[in-house]
């Protein structure tokens, strides 16, 4: 890897470049975070607790700014001439989302405006930078895509991945942990095929996210959240890595043309993709807008089972790593066969917390007619069937229309069941009423993002 710095031209071993990128990104991010925390405290820029969030205290939320700086500085310093053209447009796209994220963290902007900014940033990368999905690799019999279709599909993929990372940023360490695992997986791949520029870029992201992870998970006085700034930036970067991964395998010069790049890419991104699919499905089933925030995410269900933020994050990361390793072990099966195995397995595994929760409260739920004594087998995707019955727990009040109905839609019905279950287990075996002001039990509230 040749690095031009002024009049100097360096050619260090790739492992030196990797270590330097990680160390510099880590050090810069770690140095900047305390300053951001001080500014946030002075200007009252905090993420405040509310009903659907998992933290109970005000926490600074501009950690994404530190990650942005930490990962770009080593990448820009050690950029090779071959990489300059693509990096220029990637940087412009990142800059747009960075400022949109900052504005959203401080002032809040509408989802539609944020989506328009995402599409504009993605279009710059896809059209001017020519970083786009040009082929389906023979998946479903489709190979080369017409240019216009290629751009539209690329924008769609970017939007899904970016918002997938935004959705999983709900507990300490999860979004950054998935970002670390994803960037490291892509970085190892780029290293193996000899793509040094993207190898260094990937490991710069790893270094910056590692520093943030330490503050986010283990910080006490210096605790900080990514905010939309961080989740948008990470999502965009990971999307670029994924598309480069797909495109490099098309030529067949570094791997076989039959290499199942789409299936392995989906496996690497399985956490944001499967959680987005689950959450959107659940929101539609319960009659909510798929874009309206709630507590239907996988990490919320792990918290319901009593796991801490760190344990929940580690469980999800272990699942992600397991799916990646499974996909690599099955690479000889081809895309369709791999996806027919990976997707059902992923859906089943991510439904397990819901099954366990239903099982734990089965004695209580059995008293809610007409579910009967088989109610504990209800999977989490049938949450809507419990809505009408969980409402009976609230002073026996029947379903109302108007504002009351909207309020019911905003409630986390699993938390209602959890609270009522605790009262049931601590009482005399009868269904007991409980306050209607907040459906969260203090026993199960966690401090996190």
How are the SSEs ordered, and which strands pair?
Blueprint: E1 3-5, E2 8-10, H1 14-43, E3 46-47, E4 59-60, H2 63-77, H3 81-107, H4 111-128, H5 147-168, H6 174-192, H7 196-218, H8 227-248, H9 261-268, H10 270-285, H11 298-304, H12 309-329, H13 335-360, H14 362-365, H15 383-390, H16 403-409, H17 413-426
Antiparallel strand pairs: 1-2, 3-4
Number of strands: 4
C-alpha-based Rg, rounded: 23 Å
* Helical proportion, percent range: 55-70%
Largest sheet properties:
2 strands, antiparallel
Proportion of beta-strand residues: under 5%
Mean pLDDT metric: 76
Instruction: Indicate how many domains the architecture comprises.
Output: 2
Distance between termini?
39 Å
**Which runs of at least 5 residues are low in confidence (pLDDT < 50)?**
368-385, 391-408, 428-449
| Number of distinct helices | 17
* Outline: globular
What is the ordering of alpha helices and beta strands?
EEHEEHHHHHHHHHHHHHHHH
Relevant terms:
globular; 449 residues; single chain; mainly alpha; two-stranded antiparallel sheet; 4 strands; 2 domains; two-stranded antiparallel ribbon; 64% helix
Description of the structure:
This protein is mostly helical and 449 residues long. It folds into two domains: 19-353, no CATH class; 364-444, no CATH class. It is 64% helix and 2% strand. The chain contains 17 helices and four strands. A two-stranded antiparallel sheet has the order 1-2. The chain has a two-stranded antiparallel sheet with strand order 3-4. Strand 1 and strand 2 form a beta hairpin. Helix 1 (14-43) packs antiparallel against helix 2, helix 6 (174-192) packs antiparallel against helix 7 and helix 6 (174-192) runs parallel beside helix 8. The chain is globular, with a radius of gyration of 23 Å. The model is unreliable at 368-385, 391-408 and 428-449 (pLDDT under 50).
